[in-house]
Please model this.
Amino acid sequence: MSDHARKVLNVSGPDARTFLQGLVTNDVARLDEGLVYAALLTPQGKLRCDFFLVPDGENILIDVAADQAASLMQVLTLYKLRSDVAITETDRQVSRGTGPAPTGAFADPRDPRMGWRGYDGQPDQPADWDALRVACALPEMGVELGPDTFILEAGFERLNGVDFKKGCYVGQEVTARMKHKTELRKGLAQVQVTGEAPVGSDITKDGKPVGTLFTQSGGQAIAYLRFDRATGEMSAGDATVRYDG
Model:
């Protein structure tokens, strides 16, 4: 099971929106509509971390995995330069649930099946979040997502986490080049699984590497695949894996 420990940062000041707009993969203007799912990349286009931007009056909150919060604050502070912004950690708690969002909460922008997220004390609604993530082929930092991740291979376009019309941001050139390739050769996908294998198990076909098996639930899993090799029955530990494309 994944760990959903989160921290909430606060970005305040008159330059908050323009500061973040030049850094993150999505269009900050979407905050006018609700939560914005986005990522911060390295200049080489690889993932530093993913997060939600949250509208909060004149300020912008950042809902990020707890173990990523300190490094994200450090990187944002490095990029701050002369921008008139302040970046602080808050004590706000993140709550979530399925179904329609209660008052003051926001629909999860990645997939409607992921329900809502709240930041003002809404009661947490338990659910089998790993099962929902697998059903949505939705990756999580520290499991399917890591420092070698390219966001288009991780499905960020499908998950509304990247905007190709917003202009420059850190890592934008690499991401745009990948977008305009004819097709991705590798990436995260939903697979069918018979049996179980540890998260991180190698997937093979006829002894050749095909990819890696990650979160599993209800006979399905999220896997990272080389699509040209992901045909027929494959193996991962003691499990049989099939990718239906």
